[in-house]
Design brief:
This protein is an alpha+beta fold. It is about 25% helix and about 30% strand. Helix 2 runs antiparallel to helix 3 (about 105-120).
């Protein structure tokens, strides 16, 4: 899979049996549909229910369908990310950690934050 930000090939990493596509070049990551919920809550949950109505058409292509993704704030945060309604979320370097920090610590998110820091570096 190609990184939607820099075009380089991404590598697959695993966290809690969930595959996270990571770009070693720019530090961004891709979460396929349902993976966000599996990581933070243990069940499929996709931001289709999230309100991206205020989003706008972005410039980055979805790594699956190649259509331009929507850019909008992740619900409950000021973090803007790229979103394909059919396939998943693109998070630039540090955005995943910022979302975790802004939503408050839970056992799952603390584990994810520690994992992100060990893999991606500090936000």
């Amino acid at each position: 899979m190609r990184c939607p930000a820099c075009g380089k090939g991404m590598i697959v990493m695993e966290f809690k049996d969930v595959e996270v596509d990571y770009c070693a070049s720019c530090g961004g990551c891709w979460l396929d549909q349902g993976e966000w919920g599996l990581i933070v809550g243990g069940s499929l949950d996709f931001p289709a229910r999230f309100d991206f109505a205020q989003g706008r058409k972005g410039r980055r292509p979805c790594p699956h369908c190649r259509k331009r993704m929507t850019v909008g704030a992740f619900p409950g945060t000021s973090v803007e990310l790229d979103f394909c309604a059919l396939h998943g979320l693109w998070l630039d370097k540090g955005e995943l950690q910022k979302i975790i920090q802004s939503r408050g610590a839970t056992a799952e998110s603390s584990a994810l934050a520690a994992y992100c820091e060990s893999v991606f570096g500090k936000a």
